[in-house]
Amino acid sequence: MNIHQFDVIIVGAGGSGLMAGLYASRNAKTAVISKLYPTRSHTGAAQGGISAALGNVEEDRIEWHTYDTVKGSDYLGDQEAIEFMCQEAPEAVLELEHMGLPFDRTPEGKISQRPFGGHTNNVTGKPVSRACHAADRTGHMILQTLYQQCLKNNVNFFDEFQVIELLTSNGKASGVVAIELATGELHVFQAKAVIMATGGHGRIFEVTSNAYAYTGDGAALVLRKGIPLEDMEFFQFHPTGIYKLGILITEGVRGDGGVLINGKGERFMPKYAPSVKDLASRDVVSRAIYTEIRAGRGVDGSNFVYLDVRPETVNKFAEIDGRTNPDGTKYTVTGEQILKKLPDIIDFCRVYLGVDPVTQMMPIQPTAHYSMGGIPTNKYGEVIVDDHNTTYPGLYAVGECACVSVHGGNRLGTNSLLDLIVFGKHAGLKAAEYSSRVPFEDLPQNPEANVKNELDGLRQGSGKESVYDIATDMKKVMFDLVGIYRNEKDMQTAIDKIHELQQRYSQVKIVDTGRIFNTELINAWELGNMLQIAEVIAISALNRQESRGGHSREDFPKRDDQNWLKHTLVTKQGKELKISYKPVSITKYQPKERVY
Amino acid sequence: MLVTLKVFRFNPDVDKKWHYETYKIEAPETDRILDLLEKVKGHFDGTLSFRRSCAHGVCGSDAMRINGRNQLACKTLVRDLGDKITVEPILGLKVIKDLIVDMEPFFDHYKTVLPFFINNDPLPENGKERLQSPEERARFDETTKCILCACCTTSCPSFWAGETYLGPAALVTAHRFIFDSRDQAASERLKIISETDGVSRCHTVFNCTMACPREIQITKAIGELKLAMITGKLD
Ligand SMILES: Cc1cc2nc3c(=O)[nH]c(=O)nc-3n(C[C@H](O)[C@H](O)[C@H](O)COP(=O)(O)OP(=O)(O)OC[C@H]3O[C@@H](n4cnc5c(N)ncnc54)[C@H](O)[C@@H]3O)c2cc1C
Ligand code: FES
Question: Exposed/middle/buried for A445, CB within 10 Å: 0-12, 13-18, 19+?
Answer without folding.
Answer: exposed
